[in-house]
């Protein structure tokens, strides 16, 4: 009997120990859940803009596939809040196209945002925006709690969940209209201590830490946020934000809500207009693409060609302050698809490119180049005058007509010709080519800058960046330079006593008539003048006047000096005081006008001028010495020296001098 009792006591003790251990494990699990609340990272779509999210700092997860031009990004490193959050993350290099977590922090609006191409995304330029943000890797900072649900600025935001604080804003009524209410949502981030106790909602550490940095937020943003966190108990005893009439006056929706990104529903149509880029000012060119629409190219390759155009348009950042682009398609005959002024941004341009249909026929590229030279770059078609003209010719294989003569005429008209040849002729096919080495004959330099050879249509996309870099390098667009817009011209004028006052005015009129023929500006041809007797005087330098009218007025104001004739000293003076300030990329032309033999030696000064690359034209009148003119003039002297028997006949030599200048310019090697 005693044995049975002991066995029962042992069983009871054993059961008690099992229950005790189970309870301890249960309590440990409960403790773990309380101390380590799970943080759910909110997920957003690719098209979500930072300005639509109220939170000043947050962690989000981006999906895959946000590397798409339709998700617009504005700025570089610091982005305008009108940008796609995920698109900006890819552009900055924080994410790739596979998506992932990122940390976003709002900062102050910038006075300007510069677009750039990075990681497969072309961001756009923007003059200014009210709010900005920066993106970094999605590693939460210690002791900072981030919201597990985001706060959106419109009534279309996700439905509020448990723990969210909501506030109804009644828009002030306007006579004749009905007041509408917009719901604004603020979500709190739960901390570990808040998970185990029922307490009043508190601001997250991120909200508290940023209150000392109010200047980094748009005006009115913080006053709304702090107001939400002031709470009181409603009739049911539940915690809710204050919503009395006096509080409503503090909201000032006209200044506060709009600056913070709040837009009443009925105003969304006007506030959500997308800012349009003004274009990249560092690439201000007028660009024409001549695309191959011949039958031999086929539909598939024609689509690849259109995609190439769209990629170039996106990369260029089209706009009135930057590059403008038009398209001409050629087959048997050329036809303009649209001109420079038709589409003023990359988005509209890409849409227009998509609608282009293939013409068919032969591949008459030469005829297309002639058409562009005569018709495309006109003021009526959007040519701006101050921007370089660039024509990019795309050829499948080889043209069916000749391009050399048409291209030369285009270059002499100031057009920079680029050739992209795709799948050029093989050795066996070269016998069928109408014009061997056509691309080298078409461009003004055979150093590879103006011509690109692409082995396959399927690798054409690799040419986008090299082409854009070249057409935007305006300092190297040598083909846009002509004999009339590419020189620094210094007139060296004899003011000796033998000339006389009346004849001196005739000489000045000759100088003015010559100057009228040139395109004068600070980036085109510049004019300077020196008058000499025994002494020398700088009448005006290359940098003094930048317009044709100012130059002509300056010539009229030159006063007759009178004295001896020291032509050699005048040449040295012009080299030192005038041409020493010439731009490196300018042709240096000296036009010397004299009526007699010099009292000093001209040979050494003339040799120095030639050695320094100054092209000298010597014009003698009446008693000028022919042998001395030939010494002064650049070789060959017959092309650079002129003799006029009377001052009154000077005007007849204006076209002869201009022709000589342009002949000399066009005879220069193109390599």
UniProtKB/TrEMBL annotation:
Residues 286-471, 488-657 form the VWFA domain. The keyword Disulfide bond applies. Residues 145-177, 193-215 are annotated as: Disordered. It holds the Pfam family VWA. InterPro entries: ECM_Assembly_Org (IPR050525), LCCL (IPR004043), LCCL_sf (IPR036609), VWF_A (IPR002035), vWFA_dom_sf (IPR036465). Residues 148-160 have a biased composition (Polar residues). It comes from the Eukaryota. The keyword Disulfide bond applies. Keywords: Disulfide bond, Extracellular matrix, Glycoprotein, Neurogenesis, Repeat, Secreted, Signal. Gene3D superfamilies: LCCL-like domain, von Willebrand factor, type A domain. PROSITE patterns: LCCL (PS50820), VWFA (PS50234). It is found in: Secreted, Extracellular space, Extracellular matrix. One of its GO terms (cellular component) is interstitial matrix. GO terms for biological process: extracellular matrix organization; nervous system development; positive regulation of cell-substrate adhesion. Residues 40-133 form the LCCL domain. Binds dermatan sulfate and chondroitin sulfate. Promotes matrix assembly and cell adhesiveness. Plays a role in spinal cord formation by regulating the proliferation and differentiation of neural stem cells. PANTHER family: COLLAGEN ALPHA (PTHR24020), VITRIN (PTHR24020:SF23). This is Vitrin. It comes from Vulpes vulpes (Red fox). The gene is VIT.
